[in-house]
Amino acid sequence: MKTQYDILVAGEINPDIILSGDVEPIFGQVEKLVDSASLTVGSSSAIFACGAARLGLKVGFIGRCADDMFGQFVLREMQKAGVDTQPAVIVPGGSTGLSVILARGNDRAILTYPGLIPTLKAGDISDDLLMQSRHLHVASYFLQTELQQGLNHLFERARGRGLTTSLDTNYDPSETWHGVAELLALTNVFLPNEVEIRSLTRTETVEQAVSSLDRQVETLVVKRGAQGAMGARGGELAKVNALPVKVRDTVGAGDSFDAGFMYGYLNEWSLERSLRLAVVCGGLSTQAAGGTAGQPTLAEALPWMNGLGESKANS
Predict the structure, then answer these.
(1) Which segments of the chain does DSSP mark as H helices, in order?
(2) Is the pTM of this model over 0.85?
């Protein structure tokens, strides 16, 4: 069967309502004014998919949403970005998830209504769909509770059909971090941030965390925000500084970072080179509000890579 997708994303579908301002909500019917408000593509999975498509990868997306205004909005925006949403499952009578984000400087507070986010199942992803793909990416592991139950088997099925796999768990609201360790043996690329990997390994430093996991997964990549990123693969360790940009909004920066790294990975770039593109994609995404507005094309990203000392990329 002909491969249709470079990356198949199995993930959550929800928009973000982003409120920006130097305020903090107070109960007791206290009204506060914000500086701006916007409705944007939300969910780590959808933001990642848009970023990967903008870089030039062929991306398919499967998730569950309702035929309501929020579901229609996210599917439409992903399609505009070049993501094929035909595999997505529309649930009659369901309710699409929603996140409300209060962004303040480099920090943000998030309230999420799950809706249909937890309901995607491994069984929704057919062998036929896998056979049309080169790679399978999963994000928001802890929010996709139905998918969790069959994810090990799904990754086994994917790898048995020649796909590589990647995982970005995002933060665990329960802070138990159960189930991830067993999945890493089936994961080619693991993409946590610094807080997540230290929480998962119960270590004090990111260096200790990387040391404890680098033999459990083929490629380990850690997002470190203002400190850049580091990666480990086959005994090699690489570090890249953060991109020096003025940050407007950090929503989705980690997902744009993931998209950049996976572009390099799927094009067989070196670890450091892939990290550089990831840092550029994550950094540039922070210069616009929302998770997708600032995502670069490959042509837009390359000059920044050159500025970081990288030679011209071979796409």
Answers:
(1) 44-54, 69-80, 127-131, 145-160, 180-184, 194-201, 206-213, 253-266, 271-285, 298-307
(2) yes
